[in-house]
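Checklist before submission:
- one chain only
- standard amino acids only
- sequence pasted in full

Submission:
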Amino acid sequence: MQKIKRLAILTSGGDAPGMNAAIRAVVRTAIDEGIYVFGVYGGFEGLIEGEVMPMSRRSVSNIIQKGGTFLKTSRSEAFQHKAGRKRGADVLKEWDINDLVVIGGDGSFHGAHALYDEHQINVVGIPGTIDNDIYGTDLTIGYDTAVHTALDSIDKIRDTAASHDRIFLVEVMGRHAGFIALEVGICGGAEEILVPESDTSLEYLGEMIKTWSKAGKTSSLMVVAEGHKLGSANEIATKLKENFNVGCHVCVLGHTQRGGSPTASDRLLASRLGYHAVHALLKGKTDIMVGWSNNHVTYTSLPESWEKKKPLDPELLKIYRILST
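Returned file contents:
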């Protein structure tokens, strides 16, 4: 175990329910180890601007149940350049800090890796993103809450679809990955699920809608990940109308999926990963992400976390096809 005197923590990129629970775990674990902890407000942009504040156990009281991140977050254009990263590293050195925990997704991990690579700042990443698209962990913080939030909305939309004999296209988040769409679609009984990993064609959708009608379905629901190759839910609805004269109603769930109180699963995952992030640094590990896989903590190099593609569960894809027909 190496000795760490001072440690900083920041959240970066899109917010995710459970980030506050992770912050709380990092702060209290570090203090328990005799480490002085500092919070960086506003992500990497806040680091550049010197928004660093000492934190105590009381600083993180009454936040575990709150969505978002009380440390605030941002997407920093300046930190994408060497001059911005040098300024961030200089701020940490001014505070005599050489260890940093970054909570976020792949963009945040790029920034953390650059700090280590260019300025030898010890960094550990905690995966916080609702998309669940980070390689090296079964789940990311915020994903479970986002699924529950989206599913609650889809259940309500299903009632309206059935009452009015309508076809609904429901768009969920997932620009590059279909984890939310797949899980929500199965749990919501969707007739079709469109994910970025699939090449579902417009012609196939048109034929499926005809099949549903012949089978006596008077209403149906399709879940669309925002990054599907056919376009957004609104674009797909327009194409179905133009090509097949099929009218679809569209509901875009949008940023509602990022908000709200985190589920118990997200709070537990965040607490575990926050604890293990501190202990990874104490063990001398750096430039890695802590994850949770097969009920064990895992360590994945930061570059590997974004360079390797995390696949959708093939069994769930098979189950969806069987259950949706």
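Reviewer check: The domain at 144-258 is CATH 3.40.50.460 (Rossmann fold).
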